[in-house]
Structures are given as C-alpha cells and as structure tokens.
Amino acid sequence: MIVVNTDFIPDMKVVKVLGLVRGNCVRVRHIGRDILAFLRNLIGGEVMEYTKLLSETREQSLDRMVEEALSLGANAVINVRFSTSQIMTGAAELLAYGTAVIVEEVK
C-alpha cells in the first residue's frame, strides 16, 4: 500500500478514486506515565512516555486507515492528513484520513 500526503504519486496515475478513508484511535494517559512525565518536567527534556504514546496512537490510526482502504480495493492512499482532538481531560483522539485510490505506473 502506497501512503502519501501529496495529491499525486510520481510516475503513477490515478485510475480510480474510491473515496475517503479514515482510521482513528483514542488513548488516555496512564497515571504511571503521568508521574514519570511530571518528574521529567522538573529536570527538562523530552517527555518520552508521551512521545511513545502518541507514536503508537499515530501508527494504529494509520493502520486502521490502510485497512479501510484495502477493504475498498485500493492500492494507495493520497492526501493523507492527521487531526487531533481532546475527548476529555487526559484523553485524546488521533485521526488519520485520506483518499483511497487505485494507481497504475505511467508507461
């Protein structure tokens, strides 16, 4: 599956647009991670616990978007974007979305 954030893929042409696909994931903070993040905040630097949490959330959202595209018969997703929103205190949603397409190599 080709996944890009542009509206085209070099040396490929879109032969069919299958529609919008999306994948989302909602995660909540863990009290143990919050304590570590608080301690790290005292000394400064990257809060690796949250970086890992967001990275896992992003990958799961992308995986779900790709699954939806595959179910439509797509071999690529173009114009991929991410959006986030706070669901409640300590819980956030990450949404990946794009356009599922069928592409072929330009000859």
Task: Describe this entry's structure for a reader.
This protein has helices at residues 31-43, 48-72, and strands at residues 2-3, 12-28, 76-88, 91-105. With 107 residues, the protein is α+β, with helices and mostly antiparallel strands. The chain has one domain (2-105): Translation Initiation Factor IF3 (2-Layer Sandwich). The protein has a four-stranded mixed β-sheet. The protein starts with a strand and ends with a strand. The mean pLDDT is 87.
- Structural class by sheet pairing and helices: alpha+beta
Largest sheet: 4 strands, mixed
CATH level-two architecture = 2-Layer Sandwich
Q: How many domain regions?
A: 1
Name of the CATH class: Alpha Beta
Percentage of residues in DSSP E strands: 35-45%
Task: Name the CATH homologous superfamily.
Answer: Hypothetical protein apc22750. Chain B
Helix content: 25-40%
Task: Give a quick set of tags describing it.
Translation Initiation Factor IF3, 4-stranded mixed sheet, elongated, 2 helices
